[in-house]
Amino acid sequence: MPTLSPLAPARFPDLPQVDGVRFATAAAGVRYKNRTDVMLALCDPGTTVAGTFTRSATRSAPVRDCEAKIGGDGDAGAAILVNSGNSNAFTGKAGEGSVERIAAAVAEVAGLPEARVFTSSTGVIGERLPDDRITAALTDLHEALDPAGIEPAARAIMTTDTFPKGCARRVEIDGQAVNVVGIAKGSGMIAPDMATMLVYIFTDATIARPLLQEMLSDLTDRTFNCITVDGDTSTSDTLLLAATGKSAEVTSRGSPFEDALHEVMLDLSHQVVRDGEGATKFVEVSVTGAADDADARKVASSIANSPLVKTAIAGEDPNWGRIVMAVGKSGAKADRDTLSIRFGDIEVARDGWVSPDYAEDKGAAYMKGQELVIRVDLGLGSGTATMWTCDLTHAYIQINADYRS
Amino acid sequence: MPTLSPLAPARFPDLPQVDGVRFATAAAGVRYKNRTDVMLALCDPGTTVAGTFTRSATRSAPVRDCEAKIGGDGDAGAAILVNSGNSNAFTGKAGEGSVERIAAAVAEVAGLPEARVFTSSTGVIGERLPDDRITAALTDLHEALDPAGIEPAARAIMTTDTFPKGCARRVEIDGQAVNVVGIAKGSGMIAPDMATMLVYIFTDATIARPLLQEMLSDLTDRTFNCITVDGDTSTSDTLLLAATGKSAEVTSRGSPFEDALHEVMLDLSHQVVRDGEGATKFVEVSVTGAADDADARKVASSIANSPLVKTAIAGEDPNWGRIVMAVGKSGAKADRDTLSIRFGDIEVARDGWVSPDYAEDKGAAYMKGQELVIRVDLGLGSGTATMWTCDLTHAYIQINADYRS
């Protein structure tokens, strides 16, 4: 077992039940021994499902299958079946066969059309998925379904995550309580070939699929698409959001429901960074004053992905010269003389040079913190972006280089 | 002193003199003690100069000055003055003043117009350049100029390079011998704030400036723009090419001269990778079968910059799943079922899955080599690209994180 991340939360949160969804887990022996590795979530009829997926051109068979199914509406319930240990990615036509067999078996046991069965797989790339071990566990899984079973579900989807990830928010809509509850796995590209972020969010709200998808896509761009551990992108990233329709209806954007969903997604995305491989610091990169938002994002991404910035943070080195470098290479419009840099509230550089009041010991003291904010203002316009990342440490190399497959 | 790179050449090559150019070095104490840190190269009247520079938006004062001067033709000679220890980058208006004072002093001692004095600085970012120490050394430098002084020049421009870098080629044109001789410094972003690749190439050929610049720009795209150590870009990268006009004339593209120049640039660029921070493997990434050359470059760059691919190589792990991942995230058109991957001549994957003849021990044996070739064929078109990189090791983190500025 990897060491618990120093950035892990104190404990798994108490997650409320979401009316209309039940969970079960099993130890099917896909790859791991002596732990659960399959989870089934079953949603009642009337559920709408939205999803966002990796943009990888080599995405896995289950991702392609989910993408094909996600647009379909229907009154039937929905099932989500996830295994850990094997990603079923780059497994040729055999991979598609595995997805079909699993979906067919889940559909049969749950009494659903196959089009309402969504699957995810996470783990080794390029090895045949032993789907028979998963389908053999389905009857037991179906019998064990439990509305209180979300924490075991969060544990079953882990690969080399050092902690399970969950979050919940509750809002009141038209006098009715609405829950938004999510679980996630991922910590960059955790261990060799074990590379995925998976997120499942459930709500009892009633929401039409097009609105649900629109909200999810927009909020993904402001949460999960704003985090980076190593800049590498999984072939299997999947985020599914299911609304069971048991509570109040949400009919428009900008509602308290959307705020709650945003909070759950932001919290889960930060938990993924906090479990980043070898991470010892949680870093927010906040860019303002860019020519436009796209430029701000280029700068934030360049800083958050720079190995030199990330190793400096690991070394608690207030190395603002590397931030200047990362701004410069980003491709965004930038001007030395209008650029300013702050570490938290400490102004480090402005007017094209180090700030007159800045002293190295101030920056060095700030860098000893576990939660850091790097602020860059380009002084050009009103574009803004925020990204979250972690430092790049010896442990990252240890995890990714010293392991032999 | 850092440990000599295991990928270093056995010794510095014997470099021939280039008629019309002389070198001198000095220990001016810009930052380092007990070593040379300034070099002056002086070219005779009739010299044409071409240059390529970092694309960084936060490029340094000397880079901006060179860019402004590089287009100017003239019958006067040309001087190149380089210091190590301080990059004069992000030093505000003061940085521009330093460049002006150095250029004026060189112009005076060498009897040149200021427009023919090119300067480079490499070292710490954000500290005022003590230009008075450099200008104080100029009279001695000018008196010491020596046509045989190129090896000391290669040493004076080093920062934390572990070896000096030089290369030469000779071709015959119209019965006359033509020399192309270059020196370089750089090893990624060597040590904190010491981030630069500097390259100076001299030839006695006679070449009009527009042709010289055209050749240099094209060849830079196939050599120095195809190498990566950590994907970070210096604020000071500079490549200057001076043709003294003492030997035969080159009047068109595609000549033996251009081949020789290409070889010198390729060799020097590979030496920079071989001195990459913490490097233990030299890796060629060769992409074929892309939809077009731009797509091939995207894929090659994605593989060559992927921390997961580079840590796998460090661990001698034939982790082809990470190459699939890097292809997928590149943004280039790719198709799982037409993609093939080889390690050297060993076919690893094809038809969307692992190759039937591939065995893990073959790949593991190949990965033990010091010189590796990763070949990816996308099976879509005729686009090709080649990039060169090194592995990502504990030593990289050591150099960049454990150092405190």
Automatic annotation (TrEMBL), chains A, B:
Residue ranges spanning the membrane: these are none
Q: Where is it located? A: Cytoplasm
Residues at which substrate binds? T159, K185, T196, E277, N400, S405
Pathway per its UniProt entry is:
Amino-acid biosynthesis; L-arginine biosynthesis; N(2)-acetyl-L-ornithine from L-glutamate: step 1/4; Amino-acid biosynthesis; L-arginine biosynthesis; L-ornithine and N-acetyl-L-glutamate from L-glutamate and N(2)-acetyl-L-ornithine (cyclic): step 1/1
Please, one GO biological process term?
Answer: L-arginine biosynthetic process
Q: Please give one Pfam family short name.
A: ArgJ
The Gene Ontology CC terms held by the record are:
cytoplasm
InterPro entries per the record?
Arg_biosynth_ArgJ, ArgJ-like_dom_sf, ArgJ_beta_C
Q: Which residues form the signal peptide?
A: none
Statement: the UniProt record of this protein carries the keyword Amino-acid biosynthesis: yes
Top-rank taxon: Bacteria
The EC number(s) given in the record are 2.3.1.35, 2.3.1.1
Q: Which reaction does it catalyse?
A: N(2)-acetyl-L-ornithine + L-glutamate = N-acetyl-L-glutamate + L-ornithine; L-glutamate + acetyl-CoA = N-acetyl-L-glutamate + CoA + H(+)
Residues annotated as site: Cleavage: A195, T196
Please tell me whether the keyword Transferase is annotated for this protein.
yes
Q: Which GO terms describe its molecular function?
A: L-glutamate N-acetyltransferase activity; L-glutamate N-acetyltransferase activity, acting on acetyl-L-ornithine as donor
Which residues does the UniProt site feature Involved in the stabilization of negative charge on the oxyanion by the formation of the oxyanion hole point to?
Answer: T122, G123
- Supply the enzyme class, top level: transferase
Q: Which UniProt keywords apply?
A: Acyltransferase, Amino-acid biosynthesis, Arginine biosynthesis, Autocatalytic cleavage, Cytoplasm, Multifunctional enzyme, Transferase
Which family is this protein grouped under? Belongs to the ArgJ family.
- Subunit notes for this chain? Heterotetramer of two alpha and two beta chains.
HAMAP family tied to this protein: ArgJ
Q: What does this protein do?
A: Catalyzes two activities which are involved in the cyclic version of arginine biosynthesis: the synthesis of N-acetylglutamate from glutamate and acetyl-CoA as the acetyl donor, and of ornithine by transacetylation between N(2)-acetylornithine and glutamate.
The name under which this protein is listed is Arginine biosynthesis bifunctional protein ArgJ
